[in-house]
Write a structure and sequence with these properties.
With 802 residues, the chain is of the alpha/beta class. The protein binds one RNA strand of 88 nucleotides through α7, β11, α10, β15 and α11.
Amino acid sequence: MKYDHKSIEKKWQKVWDETGVFNATEDTNKKKFYALIEFPYPSGQGLHVGHPRPYTALDVVARKRRLNGYNVLYPIGWDAFGLPTENYAIKNHIHPEIVTEKNIARFKQQIKSLGISFDWSREINTTDPEYFKWTQWIFLQLLKHGLAYKKEMAVNWCTSCKCVLANEEVVNGVCERCSSEVVRKVKSQWMLKITAYAERLINDLDTVDYPERVKAQQRNWIGRSTGAEVDFDTTAGDKLTIYTTRPDTIFGATYMVISPEHPYLEKWKGLLKNNDEISEYQAMAARKSDFERTEGNKEKTGVRLEGVEAINPANGKNISIFISDYVLVSYGTGAIMAVPGHDTRDWEFAKKFGLPIIEVVKGGNIEEAAFTDCAAGVMVNSDFLSGMTVEDAKKAIVDYLTEKGIGHEKVNYKLRDWIFSRQRYWGEPIPVIHCPKCGIVPLKESDLPLKLPMVESYEPTDNGESPLANIADWVNVKCPCCGADAKRETDTMPQWAGSSWYFIRYMDPHNKEALAGKEALDYWKNVDWYNGGMEHTTLHLLYSRFWHKFLYDIGVVPTAEPYAKRTSHGMILGSNGEKMSKSRGNVVNPDEIVEEFGADTMRLYEMFIGDFEKAAPWQQNGVKGCRRFADRYFNLQEILIAGDKIRPELESAFHKTIKKVGYDIENLKFNTAIAALMALMNDIYAAGSINKEELRIFTILLNPFAPHITEEVYSANSLGKGLVAQAQWPEYDESKCKEDTVEIAVQINGKIKARINIAADSDNDTAISAAKADEKVAAELTGKTVIKEIYVKGKLVNIVAK
RNA sequence: GCCGGUGUGGUGGAAUAGGCAGACACAAGGGACUUAAAAUCCCUCGGACCACAAAUCCGUGCCGGUUCAAGUCCGGCCACCGGCACCA
């Protein structure tokens, strides 16, 4: 009989669908296991072979855990709000809801053809009002707790499209669509105070099991630094507060720099003699897009303030103040003390403007470059700090400043608050009303969900407002407080909103009273294993941790962290080693692979392709190899014999493989798990036959990777009552994993001279004498003095001789 | 520039804790079966030396070190990939 993947896969997918075997239960007596993949954005292009890699990987884990007796929750849904859909809808005059529906249908059909054991009864969709009702509800809680606020912010504004652009729509400083100039425009935006959680977001990384590289990226992104805030007196009378991480270098501060947006510039207008020059510089900085300000010429620019000077509080000397765009308003206090001797940017600036450079830490050559790597250095030219180490000087100066009341220790974060407004149609409406009398009035929770108006035109307005602003009968409402004429907020939420809590909804997706019921939350608690892409490490992963902590604080969820364990997959590249993309023409569609080779082969190849955590190029020939493996597995049925015990000659091979496959699956080493199964199969074919018990075990081990073909073989040969529902993951016996005799290498002075077979449990003396008894070794040793003998059990003997 | 990661045969990749480098595949070459091809099965497959083999030597990006023993550890470089980018 030939292996016919089409009929087998169709047959079992239907059975699984009808019986709902993969649906999680609420059986709280069972151990729970919650596996999660990042739910897809249903784009118009459909799946490419990169999508199934994480889905298959956690499917392998989920299927194995079910065979281990766990109650497994492995859900899927759709992160369906977003720009591409809206843009496609505008272009083709189809409502985004219809586009979304169509895209989801296609994604669903494609994913289902792969036989992933998702619990489809819990499917969610972020654009479903029954879902986003709760996204809006969370926003109202944030607002209530003072974590949502409005702020004037610069946004990207396309001068031709007359609309606000997301950062990713700005390519090389111009609009992605029309290539027109993009400028910064100030708009009032909703912000979420993620910075209030910065400290906990860093500290709690110690409580979760994430790869070190993920933790490091989050820590760097949050960017905690400990320094000091110091007040500098000015000749204008105002105190100018700066932030520095190097208060120890204060005696080397020879000038100051404030950002072009600093409020004192307005205040000091009357005192300044070069206001025109300053205004010009301010205008230039404002005109620059983010791109120009960062990617452009790094040559330092700036203007000296004429008429106001500062006084260095350490030595009482007058120093100049400059404005320069290398100092950012958004970080610290928007002002710095410049220490050109020990800061690269300050050094460059000082060189250009001919400012004094003073060495305050010994060890570098400040004529050549700033000496920044000076943590181990000793202070000089610094009055009472001179002679101290940098570390001691930091403490001493902070104590001094604190005592004098002109400074104190201060922790700063690079992390900024989350810009939560989007001037778009296809997103969750922000559920507040603007009343001329009452101000910002939140919608009543009972009025949620606030749905999007179903209209023909949702094109961008030309004044930077959301398309919703044009829809009069939606925008104009009565104030829920005072009844006066009021207007709805027209901004919508970013795509990150719906994905910041979706894993909670999966626990109880149909609940009408809450995000999820208490019982479900108490049982499922948090995600046990979350796999996703490295590209989501700093945004999605951080945002969702923030929301979860907030929900924990207000008593909604039972754990402080949403994900106990995080893993990350590598990308699947095109066969040319480049990222798969339509424009490069190297996209592989999984449908074709499933059609020609079958879903099981597709899954095997996805897992065999290489180290799961690294990128790997797609190679069609590799697919053929996996199909060959599936064929060889199917053909085992032709050499099947009776027998209800593993035969002695295969015993250790089987036990070793059971151990390895189980270990590898739990440790993301899917490629070597499959390699081990291939090797075992080679052993079986070498033995000439396989008995029923051996086939049963092999089938269960292979099942997580190739679920359809194994179900078929299991059922056709009556190996048990039903693989998915009844079978148990096989146990291995440690004592049977070992061979009785092993071949070990014999080295002389580290070079291999012979290989000998000895009993696996040989002791030191036995092994070494056996090694010396070898003819070759004996010959090599003649006339030499043995200095040292090393025996590593089961591996080698090394004899050091002269 | 900073942070993180990666460099192993013709290719994808193996090598739990410093212990036989190249598992498992792919491709290639040879053979069997076949009228023939495909499929399948068997053999070879890092390099140098060599008629062949044995033996020997070289070999995990580069240079150096530690060790009886280094792909693995340490120091110094180089290249590539990803992220961030004037964060005081």
